[in-house]
Design brief:
CATH topology: Immunoglobulin-like
Number of helices: 1
Shape: elongated
Largest sheet: 4 strands, antiparallel
Oligomer: single chain
CATH architecture: Sandwich
Strand content: 35-45%
Structural class: alpha+beta
Length: about 120
């Protein structure tokens, strides 16, 4: 009976540790270059291994319409994901919403209005 309790506690501790290591994306930065028609994105997300814990998906909405979706199988480096995403037809007054998710846990959204 004692062995069973120890085994259960060990499994629970391991599960809690893996959840504690996972975290959502951090600060997000984005700049739209109208001349290049490119959305430049930087998402802070500190990780130990870019191939096992990373930003796995970015969705881009313009005026609440999904216009781009990218998936990743690793992060740019251990501190962040950066990407330049071609994005045509963005006009003054448009709202760009960037949604980013972590392959382990959580997501974050950034919204910018074109001026």
């Amino acid at each position: 009976m004692r062995f069973k309790h120890i085994l259960i506690l060990t499994v629970v501790a391991c599960l809690l540790a893996s959840v504690a290591m996972a975290h959502p994306p951090g600060k997000m930065f984005a700049f739209y270059s109208a001349g290049e028609e490119v959305l430049k994105i930087k998402i802070d997300h500190g990780v130990g291994n870019v191939e096992s814990h990373y930003i796995d998906k970015i969705k881009i909405y313009v005026n609440d319409k999904l216009v781009k979706e990218k998936t990743y199988d690793k992060q740019t480096d251990t501190a962040r994901l950066t990407d330049d995403i071609p994005l045509k037809g963005v006009n003054k007054g448009d709202t760009i919403k960037i949604y980013a998710s972590c392959n382990k846990f959580g997501s974050k959204t950034l919204e910018i209005v074109m001026k």
